[in-house]
Design brief:
This protein is an alpha/beta fold. It has 12 helices and 12 strands. The protein has one domain: TIM Barrel (Alpha-Beta Barrel). Strands 2-3-4-5-6-9-10-11 form an 8-stranded parallel barrel, surrounded by 9 helices. Bound molecules: coenzyme A (COA) and zinc ion.
Length: 305
C-alpha cells in the first residue's frame, strides 16, 4: 500500500478570507459540500473571527451547524479564546490557532503582542484538552514576516520548542507570505522532525514566488506527511500584504500521485470543486497543473478510488 499523505483542504477559510469577492453563506455551504466529496481527510470550513476584521468569514457558525455527513475532520481557525469557545459550542472538535513568529504580525493579525500571543496559545491548548478539542497550532510567518523581514531559523526552533511543550495535536509551520525556499524548508523541517518526529508536524505553503510545490517536495524529503492546501490555489491573508494563494490541492495531489504517495483525493471530484470556485469567484481558478489536469488527469490518477 502506498504511503499516506494527509491533506487539509483550506479553501473555504484561507482561500476565501482575503478575496475581494465575498461569497454568500449558501455559496460557502455549496463549496464545503463539494470539497467534502473530494476524498480529503480534513476540511477547514472557515474561521470564528471578528466579522469587522474579516467580513468574508462572517456566519461560520451557521456552516458548522450544517456540515455534510462525510467521515471528515472539519476544522476552523480561531484567533482568540472567544473564537475557541464559539467554535467549540458550534461543535468544531479540531481548531487552528495562528501564532505569528514576530511581534508586528501578531499585532496586525490579532492585536496582541508576541508574549501575549504565546500565553494565549497556552491557555487555549489547555482549555481545549479539558474540552476534548484538538488544537493545530500554526506558527505563521515562519520564514519571513511582511513587517519585520526574514525570521531566523533559531527563532522558529525556539518558538516551536515552546509550543511543543503545550503538547498540541499538531504544529503547522506556515509560510504565510510565500517566502520560503526548498533549502530553508528542508533544513527547518529536518531539524523539527529530528526533535519531535513527523507525526504531529505539518506545513502550510503559499505560492507567491512559484516555490509552493518545490517547498512541499522539500518537506516530503524531510519526512513531513501532512500539508495544508487550497483547491485551485486560492488563498491569502488579509493582514499579510503580498501573500498569494496557497499551494494548490490539485498540485500536491498530482505530485504525491507521481511519487507513489497516496492522498486519497478523487481528482474528478476536486476538478468539479475548482469549477464551482471559479463560478463563485467569477474568474478561472486553478493551480499550476490545473490546465493540464482538466484534460489529462486520468493519465496519472485512477478514475475512481
Ligand atoms: N469572533 C467574533 N467576534 C469577536 C471575536 C471572535 N473570535 N473576538 C472578539 N470579537 C469581537 C468582540 O466581541 C468585540 O465585539 P463588539 O465590538 O461588538 O463589542 C470586538 O470583536 C472587539 O473585541 P476585541 O477583543 O477588542 O478584539 P480586537 O478589536 O482587539 O480584535 C480579533 C481582535 C482577534 C478579534 C480580530 O483582530 C480578528 O478577528 N482577527 C482575525 C485575524 C484573522 O483571521 N487573520 C487571518 C488568518 S491568520
Ligand atoms: Zn495561509
Amino acid at each position: 500500500m502506498a504511503e499516506r499523505v494527509i491533506v487539509k483542504e483550506v479553501a473555504p477559510r484561507d482561500g476565501l478570507q482575503a478575496q475581494p469577492v465575498h461569497l454568500s453563506l449558501e455559496q460557502r455551504q455549496r463549496l464545503i459540500e463539494s470539497l467534502a466529496k473530494t476524498g480529503v481527510p480534513e476540511l477547514e470550513i472557515g474561521s470564528f473571527v471578528s466579522p469587522k476584521a474579516v467580513p468574508q468569514m462572517a456566519g461560520t457558525e451557521q456552516l458548522a451547524s450544517q456540515l455534510p455527513a462525510q467521515p471528515l475532520i472539519y476544522s476552523a481557525l480561531v484567533p482568540n479564546m472567544k473564537g475557541f469557545e464559539l467554535a467549540r459550542d458550534a461543535g468544531i472538535k479540531t481548531q487552528a490557532i495562528a501564532i505569528s513568529a514576530t511581534e508586528q504580525m501578531n499585532q496586525n493579525n490579532i492585536r496582541k503582542s508576541l508574549t501575549e500571543t504565546f500565553a494565549m496559545a497556552a491557555d487555549i491548548v489547555k482549555r481545549a484538552a479539558s474540552d476534548s478539542v484538538d488544537i493545530h497550532v500554526y506558527l505563521a510567518v515562519a520564514f519571513e514576516c511582511p513587517y519585520e523581514g526574514r525570521v531566523a531559523l533559531r527563532t522558529i526552533l525556539a518558538q516551536a520548542a515552546e509550543l511543543m511543550t503545550l503538547n498540541p495535536a499538531r504544529l503547522v509551520i506556515a509560510d504565510t507570505i510565500g517566502a520560503a525556499d526548498p533549502a530553508a524548508v528542508k533544513e527547518m523541517m529536518s531539524e523539527l522532525v529530528a526533535a519531535y518526529g513527523a507525526e504531529r508536524l505539518a506545513c502550510h505553503f503559499h505560492d507567491t514566488r512559484a516555490l509552493g510545490i518545490a517547498n512541499v517536495y522539500a518537506a516530503l524529503e524531510a519526512g513531513i506527511r501532512q500539508f495544508d492546501s487550497s483547491a485551485g490555489g486560492l488563498g491569502g491573508c488579509p493582514f499579510a500584504p503580498g501573500a498569494k494563494g496557497n499551494v494548490a490541492t490539485e498540485d500536491i495531489a498530482s505530485l504525491c500521485q507521481q511519487m507513489g504517495l497516496d492522498t486519497g483525493i478523487d481528482m474528478a471530484a476536486l476538478l468539479e470543486s475548482i469549477a464551482l470556485l471559479s463560478e463563485f469567484i467569477g474568474a478561472p481558478q486553478g493551480g499550476r497543473s490545473h490546465y493540464w489536469l482538466v484534460k489529462n488527469w486520468q493519465k496519472i490518477f485512477a478514475s475512481s478510488h
